[in-house]
Amino acid sequence: PVMLDFTGFACVNCRKMENNVWSDEQVLKILKNDLVVISLYVDDKRKLPESEQTVSKETGRKIVTIGNKWSDFIITKYKTNTQPFYVLTDLKGENLNEPIGYMPDIEIYHQWLKDGVSKFKK
Asked: Which value, in Å, is the radius of gyration of the alpha carbons in the chain?
């Protein structure tokens, strides 16, 4: 399974999750061994090549940076623009369970990960 990690360089709650929840032994084991984690930084200021710059069909805003691209993706596909935001998907991009946002409760987050991995294996 794939975990999309919508994050940001300036996202305080993202760092809290990484430092306090992802560092938990059981959570880290799943992140390292059972998932492909893809971190999408919605505030990445690097410019996209001109051929990839466009205007969002959802918001009408210009998409000129990598961060704009991921921000538009989360808005368009998941109807939110909050970070952190985690999505577990299968290889076709279909959600395995309900996406989750900031969740400092290690046990709830761990259970969410286990649920998604279990559904992927079925």
From this structure: 15
Q: Which residues lie below 8 Å from residue 32, measured CB to CB, with a gap of 6+? A: none
Taking 3-state DSSP, the helix, strand and coil percentages for the chain, each rounded to the nearest 5, stand at: 40, 20, 40
DSSP labels for 1-30?
-EEEEEE-TT-HHHHHIIIIITTSHHHHHH
Question: Rounded to two decimals, what is the model's pTM?
Answer: 0.95
Of 98, 69, 99, the C-alpha closest to 83 is 99
Query: Span 65-94, mean pLDDT?
Result: 97
What pLDDT score was predicted for residue 27?
98
Q: Which has the closest alpha carbon to 80: 98, 62, 104, 93?
A: 98
At 39 the pLDDT is: 98
Q: Is 113:88 a contact under the CB 8 Å cutoff? A: yes
Give me 50's structure tokens. Answer: 């001109």
